[in-house]
Amino acid sequence: AEMATARLSGSENRLVSLPLSRIRVIMKSSPEVSSINQDALFLTAKATELFVQYLATYSYKHGRGKEKNALTYTDLSHTAEECETFQFLADILPKKILASKYLKMLEKEKRDGEVREDDDEAEEEEDEDKA
Asked: Transcription factor CBF/NF-Y/archaeal histone domain: which residues (predicted)?
């Protein structure tokens, strides 16, 4: 049985582009997974490959068209933002922004956070005065 699995494994490797060993490592990183069936590993690899292909094709067709014959990060992030099917990817494919704009956003969040914390402290002091 082991030899049949080994032969099957060899032919499966040619049917998928993604490395099965890396996919196995990712699958095993889940605490719920104890063992991985060869067929499950192959099907996960193939499904992942087809998904990436679909994402790339969709993003290229619906891209901004800023670069001819090229798929850009902007095309992918636009797809994640605009297409409901791919919105779950928005966190890992965010729109690019300038570092200066990001730093301003962080500064604003920090200022807003400090204001809230100051308000909480003022309320606590008032409560102590009443007691």
From this structure: 17-78
Tell me how far apart the alpha carbons of residues 42 and 35 are, in angstroms, rounded to a whole number: 14
Tokens of 83: 């297409």
Q: What is the mean pLDDT of each run of 10 residues along the chain (131 residues)?
A: 45 76 92 90 94 93 75 90 91 84 85 61 50 50
Q: Residue ranges per domain, the chain?
A: 35-115
